[in-house]
Amino acid sequence: MPASISISIALCTCNGGRFLEEQLASLASQHHLPTELVVCDDASDDNTYELLERFASNAPFAVRLHRNTQRLGIGPNFEQAIRLCTESVIALCDQDDVWMPEKLSRYAEQFAQCADWVCCNARLTDAALSLCSNTLWEVVRFSADERERAASGHFFEVLAKHSVVAGATLAFRSEIRDKLLPIPQTWLYDAWLAAVLGAAKRVAVIDECLQLYRQHENNAIGGRRRNFISNVRNALTVNRSDYLNLEILKWAQLSEHLKSLQVPDPIFLGLKDKRDHLERRAELPNSRLLRIHLILDEVGRGGYARFSRNWESIALDLFLK
Q1: What angle do CA 205, 215, 141 make, to 5 degrees?
Q2: Domain residues of the chain, as ranges?
Q3: What percent of the chain has pLDDT over 70?
Q4: Superfamily assignment of 7-214 in CATH?
Q5: Which of 67, 85, 108, 99 is nearest to 8 (CA)?
Q6: What's the CA dihedral at 121, 141, 198, 71 to 10 degrees?
Q7: Could you tell me which of 311, 306, 187 has the C-alpha nearest to residue 253?
Q8: For the chain, which terminal residue's Cβ has fewer other Cβ atoms within 10 angstroms, N or C?
Q9: What is the 3-state secondary structure (H, E, C) of 214-243?
């Protein structure tokens, strides 16, 4: 076991008392114990902070508690926790999951083999930790072909199509932290971190379920599978133009950030293609009849297959205003 790999766990909490003790117990049961647990509590008004203080008094590693007096929200709170970590590897942690005992040891092995960042699969459960039939990667449609592409140095191509990395499965070297921050408010924190890391850093994709990913009514993001009909219903509540313009803004922000990091030219070609695809979709005329040949042109370019949900996005562009 690579004992030289020192790990900070960045845990964010907010009214997590219902499930927190099981997660804390799983952290204390790791075969490769972290050097420190950094907790940023986001102004909880339940028993979360008392549970944290009790755990800190007997934990088998250092526990550093920070309590926000005003609620920051999940993204800014994770950014704060990341900044406070002091060890060579930073592993992100949700308050309501449960980690398998071998999770950090498997991660440490990958970092010892020169990975810059690591992610794993997770088994979905219900609130009582009864196993669901799907894994996280099945739900987000992270296919075997995409996993192979990601592991072979082409993760950014996958992430340019869809987000597949849950923050709670993510760990990275602290020496690259400054290249990841700040996180724009327009981005989900884990999607931003994965996109920046995926553009230029060596990843270890661990095709194992190294944690239980609990699904319950208060999940901030969650991993429930949505079928095509559910996606359409959800899309009907969104203004298509507003959504696409926001996506264009987000990818422009990422492009500027990666430019400052001097990432390889192929990444910028992929970014340009992604933004061009979004702009062509945003500029579709109001007339559905006039859209047809433009959508078919985009199908021919491969834009929907490379950068969107393919036939689902085609249907939404055809029928939504």
Answers
A1: 40
A2: 7-214, 228-319
A3: 93
A4: Spore Coat Polysaccharide Biosynthesis Protein SpsA; Chain A (3.90.550.10)
A5: 85
A6: -70
A7: 187
A8: C
A9: ECCCCCCCCCCCCCHHHHHHHHCCCCHHHH
Nearest in space to 145 (alpha carbons), one of 134, 131, 161: 161
Residue 231 has pLDDT above 60, yes or no: no
- Whole-number Å distance between alpha carbons of 220 and 267: 30
CA distance 70 to 51: 20
Q: Which two tokens stand for residue 149?
A: 């592409």
Closest residue by Cα to residue 99 from 54, 5, 33:
33
Extract long-range pairs of 257-265: CB within 8 Å, 24+ residues apart.
257/196, 258/196, 258/199, 258/200, 261/179, 261/196, 261/199, 261/200, 263/199, 263/200, 264/200
CB atoms within 10 A of CB 252: 14
Round to whole Å and give the CA distance between 178 and 144: 32
For residue 175, the Cα-to-chain-centroid distance in whole angstroms is 20
